[in-house]
Structure formats: structure tokens, C-alpha cells
Amino acid sequence: MNNKFFLCFLILLGIKLQAQNNKPEIVLIECIYTNYSDDGIALKQLISNFENQLLEEKILADSSGSSYRRIIKQMANDTFLSNHFFSNFSDEWEKVGNSFDRLNKNCRNTILKENLLPFELKVSDLITKKNIQSSSDIAQIMLQVFSDKDLELEYIKLNLFLFMATAATTNTNGSDKLLPPIYDAEKAFQIAINSDNEIFISKHLVSISQLSELLRTYVVKNTSNSTILLNYNKNTTYGDYMKLQQVILSNIEAIKHEYALETYSLNYEALSIDEKDKVDTMYPLHVIAIEIK
Question: If we measure between CA atoms, which residue out of 164, 32, 177, 30 comes closest to residue 101?
């Protein structure tokens, strides 16, 4: 009896796993990988490297769908990564993007019954019903369409990364790129870094420790209304720009940890997803980067 039960369990498990592997997003990305001359190694590496960057910068807690959902929630609240963050990603995408468009189309024609995937049909339907004004509107639609399991699929991760890169690009030339987040410059905390990588607050040269102190005071006072404007020069080095981003991130993370201990008597990392969302809403990472011409 036990052996028969175990055999039935294995059969059912096999059916379930096969159904998961036959998800159209999985079948499509595997077709695309196979048709690259390098079997998709460069594209796989692009996805893996950018996810690792998100993990290293602590933007992702882990590679789970729930962690990606938190990023989308932040974007829905007008919190976007800066365009600098996508420098390496964009360079690598240039190498594989043209082939991806062609292979994506060919694989769809070969293996899909519909030209659009189920999630694309849902997104398209919601877009036609809503008055889309910004990237955050698209992020809100993503929250409705994607489950946590969906966000663990490589094809959807790649589409999310491409959306994030587009959302980080300011629409200044009337193109079809989405609008940047709206903010009140007078109420924002404005940081400037010049071509000599010197940091200024209100036109006063400051040290990293002074910046941290002023930033913490501002964020604790303004909580969910905090907006940080990071003005940089085109000659600002990428390394120093990222160091400045890390200072901002580490200070806001420290505030979140303090708030989590005060409110829940737990470290931030030990909180539930819902509790983390409440802390993130209280102290969002709302950084907008602007290049000074």
C-alpha cells in the first residue's frame, strides 16, 4: 500500500514539474537561448550579473519573487534606480539585444499559439483601460499581473530589468520613453557632486560624515515625503558616483533598522514581508539623479 502511494506521488510530482517546465515563459526563453550562437551564455550572464549587482547593492534581499515584488512596489511609489546604475547592463544589452529581438520573434512564431504571452495580454489590457502617465503607473500594473512565482522566471526578470533601465532614463527629447518621477525640488534634499568629485549641500562643501549627519536629519524629519536629488556632472567618475549612492543607501538602511527595532523589536531583516513594506513606505529610498549640463 505504501509503495503504491509513493509511486502515485512520484507520478503526480512528475506531472506537476512537467507543467511548471512547460510554462510559456520558460519554453520561450529556452528557445531563445538555444538559438544564440553561444547557446545563450552571454544573455544568461547578463541576467545573472545584474541580479548579483542588485544583491550586492542590497536592493534585493535575495533572488526570490517576493524580493523583486518589493522593488516593483518601490517603483510604484516613484522610487527608481538612477541611470548610472544601468551603465554596464546597457553595454552588455547592446551586444545581445538585436539578436534577442529577432530570436524572440522567431521562437514566438514557432512555439506559441498566441503572439503574446499571458502576462503581456493582461498588461496590454490594463494599459488600454488606464490613463498611463508615468513609469510608476506601469509598475502598479505589474503588481496586479505578476505573482511572486512569475517574478522568478528568467524571461520576466529580463523584461523587468529592461523596464527599470527605461524608467531610469529621463524623457527630455519627446521620445516614447516614460516620464520621470514627479518631485518638489524645494522640499528635496539636494546633493551635488562636481567634476572633481567634491560633494556639496546647499552650495557648501561637505565631508562624507557631514553629509551623513545632514541626510539622516532630513530623512527622519520628512519620513515618507523624503526625496533626495543627486546632481552630478558629466565628468563625475562612475566610481565616486556609486560611492555617494552607497552613502545614501547605507544611511537610509540604518534608519530603517532603527525604526524596525523601535516599532517591532526586531532587526529589519527579521521582519515579515508586510512589516518590511511598512518600514519601506515610512523611509523610502527615493533618489533622483540629474545630470547638470
Answer: 32
pLDDT at 234: 72
Higher pLDDT, 131 or 261: 261
Pairing of strands 228-233, 199-201: unpaired
Q: Are strands 287-292 and 228-233 parallel, antiparallel or unpaired?
A: parallel
pTM: 0.55
Report pLDDT for 272: 80
Could you read off the pLDDT of 116-136 as tens digits, one per residue?
Answer: 788 888 887 777 777 776 778
3-state secondary structure of 192: strand
Nearest residue to 181 (alpha-carbon basis) of 244, 136, 228? 136
Which residues are within 8 A (CB) of 177 and not within 5 positions of it... i.e. 6 or more apart? 166, 169, 170, 171
Cell of 131: 490613463
- CA atoms of 100 and 36, how far apart (whole Å): 8
Which of 102-111, 237-246, 281-290 shows the highest mean pLDDT? 102-111
Q: What are phi and psi of 228, to 5 degrees?
A: -115, 120
Distances (CA, A) of 32 to 22, 98, 107, 116, 264: 15, 12, 7, 15, 46
Q: Shortest CA distance to 280 belongs to which of 247, 262, 257?
A: 257
For residue range 14-48, list pLDDT tens digits in order. 433 334 456 888 989 999 999 999 999 999 999 99
Distance CA 85, CA 104 (A): 26
Specify the DSSP class assigned to residue 133. Answer: -
Instruction: Give the strands of the sheet with 199-201, arranged side by side.
Output: 204-205, 199-201, 189-193, 228-233, 287-292
pLDDT for position 155 = 93
